[in-house]
Amino acid sequence: MDDEDKGLLSLQGRPLVQHSIERLQAQGGAIIISANRNRESYAGLGFPVIADGKAGFCGPLAGILAGLKAMRSEWLQCIPCDKPC
């Protein structure tokens, strides 16, 4: 994908991450966005943005670990923003 940030790609006029946020907001609870790039763009959505704890690309499990460390609730739900349907 030419190194594009998938979460910021547009679908129906909105970034993919916005579709995910809307689905999660309907369920209630806090939302944390895991992102290593374009953090300012994600922060503009109004939710905390966390990065992986290690440098380099460690894969999606590193983002889940960062989410576990940042969360304040008993449960963590993880969803990929590049699968809106």
Describe the protein's architecture and organization.
This protein starts with 9 loop residues before the first strand and ends in a 15-residue tail after the last helix. The model has no long low-confidence stretch (mean pLDDT 90). The protein has 85 residues and is an alpha+beta fold. The protein is globular, with a radius of gyration of 13 Å. It has 3 helices and 4 strands, in the order ββαβαβα. The protein has a domain at 30-72.
- N→C terminal distance: 19 Å
Poorly predicted runs = none
Helix-strand pattern, N to C?
Answer: EEHEHEH
Number of helices: 3
Sum up the overall morphology in one term: globular
Task: Report the β-strand fraction as a percent range.
Answer: 5-15%
Whole-number mean pLDDT: 90
The total strand number stands at: 4
Strand order of the largest sheet: 1-2
Break the fold down into its secondary structure elements and pairings.
Blueprint: E1 10-11, E2 14-15, H1 16-25, E3 33-34, H2 39-43, E4 49-50, H3 60-70
Parallel strand pairs: 3-4
Antiparallel strand pairs: 1-2
